[in-house]
Specification:
The complex is a heterodimer. By secondary structure, chain A is mostly helical. Chain A contains 13 helices and two strands. Chain A folds into two domains: about 1-35; about 45-295, Orthogonal Bundle (MetI-like fold). In chain A, helix 3 (about 70-100) packs antiparallel against helix 10 (about 205-235), helix 8 (about 160-185) crosses helix 10 (about 205-235) and helix 12 runs antiparallel to helix 13. By secondary structure, chain B is mainly alpha-helical. Chain B is built from 14 helices and no strands. The chains are: A mainly alpha, B mainly alpha. At the A-B interface, helix 1, helix 4, helix 5, helix 6 and helix 7 of A face helix 2, helix 4, helix 5, helix 6 and helix 7 of B.
Chain lengths: ~300, ~290
């Protein structure tokens, strides 16, 4: 008699408690999961000018993979994500190690490091577009002052440099954020480990290589995957700087999705690129969940 | 630490100078775009285009900070940004606080799948599903409305904020919930009377993050809003750049508005800087 009653109450409580998350789940189902399925459906159709939807099977995917611009865009995406993550983590680590030391004005600098992160992307892009301007930009002037060049140089308008020029803006905005994250991981390493190593005669480099690196590597890996995902998705920075141009030289996959959806009105084709991006992101997502599950703690 | 004592004094001095130079380099690297923004915002219209480019404005045009309100329509932009951001904060907190509480302290069906759904959903950028979303919002009549922007901002910030609040609620001991239950507190009362007051710092940080992310949101604000008086400040500024050739842009006024659009965010971030690394990582990474 007693036992079933308790199970009943448990069950009732578990159902009732779902009320807390139902509103959130409703938002997800309506505005994320449902659109996700319709983008997959849309990728198999072609929309004609008169509004008819014609089933074309995998034709959109075939078109995408045989397009002459596609290899370039894949390469750009890989450079943007992997080189970007490498630079952000590398510079972040260097800054974090510097800030780990005690020195005068440290608090102020930690505060200043938030400025690039807090600044709206649109504002940062406006500033950098001015800085990069070939005629009256500060960067061109700096290069002329150093005597590196005497001409006007336009990094954003050149197919060879546009991607790197935009990446510098992104690295500038995200690296300080990485630094603060790594710094908080560094603080969580107990001091006595370093003291013990010093007593054993380990020098600074040995302490860094044998203590710091192994202990922060797992949280740096999670951070790396996360900022890699952000980079993959960062449509707005590239769009505001160059709109992916000139000639797709700075476009990554998400720029193609947007351009085909709103500029060229190739909705089926755009949806096919969405599906490809979705598959790639899923790989990242699995890596991220795995990385989170086996993150180490220090004590 | 003790090792350096034995080193020659000169080497130690050189090391300290090099370290100071290095810190200075970081500072210059982080701040020169900010310096350029402020410098250009104080220049006269024609001085922006003069070559060689200077960093110190001469003469200093303080009047830009007043004129910008007459010459560019930034007040409408601020109004739109404030309405959208404010509404997003209210809606997102109403959805996220109960959800984070349930994920942190309550037992319910499908708890693990829900958690993974939240975790994974923040990885897929809105641009990937922009077409179906546009079609859906269009049929709901939400294109070119503030409500449409609020719905999108809520949807795509929800996961981040839920995880952030959950990590804040996780620090409240489980015994508190049990004690409250024994005293006859319903789970909702426990949330309202105990969790919300105790975690008010965490909630404040979450509010500020919602504020920043909504204020900075570009994609939906740019694609959904066509009436120029409804455009948030960020989009309004971008369109000045988009619709003019580089020499036709009133750079000095654009940078003045950029200063106005950035200052509130920087102040907010400096206020919560001690909570940022902790809660930010908690929400996004740990």
């Amino acid at each position: 008699m007693k036992k079933p009653k308790r199970i009943d109450r448990n069950k009732r409580e578990k159902w009732l408690n779902m009320l807390y998350i139902l509103p959130m789940l409703a938002v997800y189902v309506v505005f994320i999961l449902y659109p996700m399925t319709s983008v997959m459906k849309l990728s198999l159709f072609d929309k004609k000018i008169n509004g008819d939807m014609i089933f074309v099977g995998l034709q959109n995917f075939v078109d995408f993979f045989t397009n002459v611009d596609t290899p370039r865009v894949f390469l750009n995406t890989a450079i943007w994500v992997f080189l970007g993550v490498f630079l952000k983590l590398g510079l972040g680590l260097i800054m974090a190690l510097a800030l780990y030391k005690k020195f005068y004005g440290k608090k102020l600098i930690t505060g200043i490091m938030l400025i690039p992160y807090a600044m709206p992307a649109a504002v940062a892009c406006m500033i950098w577009r001015l800085l990069y301007n070939p005629m009256f930009g500060h960067i061109g002037q700096f290069l002329r002052d150093l005597g590196i060049t005497t001409q006007a140089v336009g990094f954003l308008g050149n197919t060879k440099t546009s991607l790197i020029a935009v990446m510098i803006v992104n690295v500038w905005a995200v690296a300080p954020f990485c630094a603060l994250n790594i710094l908080s991981t560094l603080y969580s390493i107990p001091k006595y480990i370093y003291e013990a190593a010093s007593i054993d005669g380990a020098n600074a480099w040995q302490r860094f290589r044998c203590i710091t690196m192994p202990l922060i590597s797992s949280s740096m890996r999670t951070l790396g995957i996360l900022i890699g995902i952000w980079a993959f998705n960062s449509f707005d920075v590239i769009y505001m700087m160059t709109q992916g141009g000139p000639a797709n030289s700075s476009a990554i996959l998400v720029n193609l999705i947007y351009d085909n959806a709103f500029r060229f009105n190739n909705r089926g084709y755009s949806a096919a690129i969405s599906v490809v991006s979705f598959v790639l992101l899923s790989v990242f997502a699995i890596l991220y969940v795995r990385a989170k599950e086996d993150e180490v703690s220090y004590e | 630490m003790n090792k350096t004592v034995n080193k020659p004094k000169i080497a130690k001095q050189i090391y300290r100078v090099l370290f100071a130079v290095f810190i200075l380099l970081i500072l210059v690297d982080l701040l020169f775009p900010v310096a350029a923004m402020i410098s250009v915002s104080l220049k006269k219209a024609n001085d922006v285009f003069s070559v060689p480019v200077t960093w110190i404005p001469d003469p200093v045009a303080w009047e830009n900070y007043v004129e910008v309100f007459q010459k560019l329509d930034i007040l409408d932009g601020f109004k739109s940004s404030i309405i959208v951001t404010g509404a997003t904060i209210v809606v997102i907190m109403l959805l996220a606080i109960p959800a984070a509480y349930a994920l942190s302290k309550l037992r319910f069906f499908f708890k693990k799948p829900t958690y993974y759904l939240v975790l994974v959903s923040q990885m897929f950028a809105p641009v990937i599903i922009i077409i179906p979303l546009y079609i859906m919002m269009n049929s709901l009549g939400l294109i070119d409305t503030y409500a449409g922007l609020v719905v999108m901002n809520v949807t795509f910030n929800l996961a981040f904020i839920v995880l952030m609040l959950k990590s804040s609620f996780d620090t409240v001991p489980k015994e508190v919930v049990e004690a409250a239950k024994i005293d006859g507190c319903s789970s909702f009362m426990t949330l309202r009377r105990i969790f919300v007051p105790v975690s008010r710092t965490g909630i404040a940080v979450a509010v500020i993050f919602t504020f920043t992310r909504t204020w900075n949101e570009f994609l939906f604000a740019f694609t959904y809003i066509s009436t120029s008086s409804k455009k948030p400040i960020i989009v309004g500024l971008y369109e000045i750049l988009k619709n003019n050739p580089a020499v036709g842009i009133p750079w000095h006024l654009v940078m003045t508005s950029a200063v106005y659009a950035t200052v509130p965010l920087v102040i907010l971030f400096i206020l919560i800087r001690n909570n940022i690394t902790g809660d930010m990582t908690a929400g996004a990474i740990k």
